[in-house]
Amino acid sequence: MFGFGRKDGGGAPEVKASATGRLAAMGTAGRAVWSSRDTGTLTRMGFTGNPVGFRAVKLIAEAAASVPLTCADHEGRLDMHPVLGLLSRPNGAQGRGEFLEAMFGQFLLTGNAYVEAVGPDGLPLELHVLRSDRMAVVPGSDGWPVAYDYTVGGRVHRFRVGETSPICHVRAFHPQDDHYGLSPLQAAANAIDVHNSASRWSKGLLDNAARPSGAIVNSGEGLTQEQFDTLASEMEAQHQGARNAGRPMLLDGGLDWKPMGFSPSDMEFQKTKEAAAREIAMAFGVPPMMLGIPGDATYANYVEANRAFYRLTVLPLVAKVCEGLAYWLGEHAGESLTLSADRDRIPALQAERDAEWSRIASATFLTDAEKRRMLGLPPAEDA
Q1: What are the φ/ψ torsions at residue 37 (nearest 5 degrees)?
Q2: In what helix (H) or strand (E) does residue 83 lie, and over which residues does it extend?
Q3: Which residues pair with 137 in a beta bridge?
Q4: CA angle 122, 124, 130 (to 5 degrees)
Q5: Torsion over CA of 150, 152, 155 and 160, rounded to 10 degrees?
Q6: Residues 157-160: contacts with CB within 8 Å, 24+ apart?
Q7: How far apart are CA 369 and CA 367, in angstroms?
Q8: HSE-up of 372 (CA within 13 Å, CB side)?
Q9: At how many degrees (to 10) do helices 96-110 and 51-65 cross?
Q10: Pick from 270, 300, 302: which is nearest to 286 by CA?
Q11: Is 23 helix (H, G, I), strand (E, B) or coil?
Q12: Which long-range contacts (CB under 8 A, 24 or more apart) does 363-370 make?
């Protein structure tokens, strides 16, 4: 691969030779190495080990958990209902915010959210969010789930699906899987690997005092085959990879180091990290400026970015999860229910709601009852 000639015979030791000079160049060409795509590795690399993924998940989960909810039946919006009381205190260890944040967080990290109902028949007494990485769907002969297996400490507990399921499973859209959802972490996995690798590379440079790429030039006699093999193996073991980035070389025997490539600063690793961070933010649907990522300003200001964040990311997520949760709780309660976000009480959308209220209130061709219905309000009580 180095284009060196080899002379045979004479009993003389084999010597590496070149018409342009005696050198051994370090190459870095090869296939990219990506981390595993299993749930545990993705969570560890993309959430607990990556600040951009961590902040994106926390930002979405906390915002979605803080959205006020309304409950309605076939007659309209209800001011009070047992389902609202259950969600206000799902179990003895969690309140509404903590419970919903855990549910939204599991959904974002794995593409699946599982909630267990605890209690006798009827509306559950308690609700518990289960870890998605421990749950396995057991499909029946027709492909529909007949049970859910939950594994903890080597023991498996099976939740059997009867007339009503003890497990509420909300999953994201996945075009290639019938039972599990696709998480944003999976879509952003390559960008997460790039961001983490750039961070490790930068840390390696700081630890080892960065040196530019180049070649080792032999200014003396040619190297024997044994010496060349030893030098090549030492370079591969001690000076390749992010862990060894910038490690200085100790050269002797007529060897000299000649820079011939771009330095890490010239390669602009910081911009590489910022580009990867923007891709991670894009996969989760968070405006980069809300994560403190520099670059092109897509939105005119932070207020507009926050409004787009709620409108395009938070509210669709809340709608999807609440729809599945309301249908499941309605089956247990024996009635048809809907849960939805109360947009009138979301500060980020207040300007839009004020404009909508003014537009509907000024419509003289609508009755008061029609205006209340269009705004999602319950019917007015009879005088």
Answers
A1: -105, 15
A2: helix 82-88
A3: 148
A4: 140
A5: -20
A6: 159/116
A7: 5
A8: 10
A9: 140
A10: 302
A11: strand
A12: none
CB count within 10 Å of CB 194 equals 19
Query: For residue 196, which of 58, 34, 57, 56 has the smallest C-alpha distance?
Result: 34
CA distances from 148 to 3, 38, 229, 323, 329 (A): 61, 19, 56, 21, 18
Tokens representing residue 320 in the block: 């999807």
DSSP 265: T
Residue 179, both tokens = 């039972």
Structure tokens of 303?
């207020």
Walk along the chain (383 residues) in steps of 10 and give the mean pLDDT of each run.
Answer: 45 50 48 80 92 96 95 84 93 94 96 94 93 94 93 93 92 94 94 89 67 56 67 64 53 56 57 89 92 72 88 95 94 91 85 77 81 72 52
The closest of 132, 179, 184, 191 to 313, measured between CA atoms, is 184
* Model pLDDT, residue 295: 66
Residue 336, amino acid: S
